[in-house]
Amino acid sequence: MTTLGFAGAAVIARFTRSAVLDVLQQPYVRAAMAAGETRYEAIVNHVLPNAAIPIITIIGFSLGGLIGGSIIVEQVFGWPGIGRLLVEVVGLRDLAVVQALVMLFATTMTLANLSVDIAYGLLNPKIYRRSS
Predict the structure, then answer these.
(1) What pLDDT, on a 0 to 100 scale, did the predictor assign at position 130?
(2) Which residue of 4, 92, 103, 126 sits 20 to 30 Å from the alpha carbon of 41, by its own alpha carbon?
(3) Which residues form the ABC transmembrane type-1 domain (predicted)?
């Protein structure tokens, strides 16, 4: 998994840096620091919760790449796993196993998207507040 993780970690690190720098320039962060909060308190209380929304979005998108990439990495390195099993059963035309594995991948992606949506609501309850 390290093979897949390094590429995704670089993207997430760049995006995190960009999101944090954007939020640090917001007036409410400067106002909090002017009101007496330390830099650490301002970052924990104001910057991280507001910068986390786009970061979670990127993590959710990269999960699809991890699932698809696992098929390729397992095949290239000869590692046993679900991705390699999928390639083998496609070659054998075992449609029942192919369907089961595709459903497993689809369910994993659906649950990942659901967890990203739930995380949005936990980080910023205003996202799900109903407006009239």
Answers:
(1) 62
(2) 126
(3) 1-120
